[in-house]
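Pipeline run #58 for the internal structure catalog. This entry was flagged by the ingest filter as a single-chain record with no existing model, so it goes straight to prediction. Upstream metadata was stripped on purpose; only the residue string is passed forward. Reviewer on rotation: M.T. Logging verbosity set to normal.
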Amino acid sequence: MSDVGLSVNPADIIDRLDLGFMGYFEGYNANGWGFNVDYGFMDLSDNGTFAGGLGTADADIFQGILTATLFLRVVDTPDTLVDVYGGIPWWDTDIDVAATLGAISADVSMGDNWVDPHIGIRFEKQLPNSDWALNLQGDIGGFGIASDFAWTAVVGVTWYANEKFALEIGYRAQGVDFESGVVGTPSHFSYDTVTHGPRIGAVFKF
């Protein structure tokens, strides 16, 4: 049986991050409809020694999420934007653990990939007499179709340097509760995680 529950905070990610990437592309039409594609992954690893120095353990965790979303702008005023959206995230997770205890060694690999629907809302409010805007975003998904439940929450600010360039600073949290296989057998895989941390990004409009 493979059963994994994780809560990853920013300090853990920074200390154990081997490689990571986040990329985002969005298109919008004047009729109010738009789409975006978002991909991010992180590859974390850690190692340790058993009590008394009897052995060692090495662990590697990969989490990648590719999301395609369609949205509709329901409020569009000079200082306020509100979008409602729905999309399909694809999750890809792999966990590898290698342990040595005396003359005994073992390698365990587990993971899965799945597709979930999600729905959400995005809000932007221009701050008075300022080039800054407040951003809020939240969505929920899963609904028992693949994962039991998934969610995302984002809060941040955007500085609009000009019509073509902006800088985003914020904090993002994302959680998922997924389970597959048969409990009590090697096919069982459970992935219940909350990943959160600050983010910063540059926005180019063309």
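catalog note: The radius of gyration is 20 Å.
catalog note: The mean pLDDT is 89.
status: ready for reviewer M.T.
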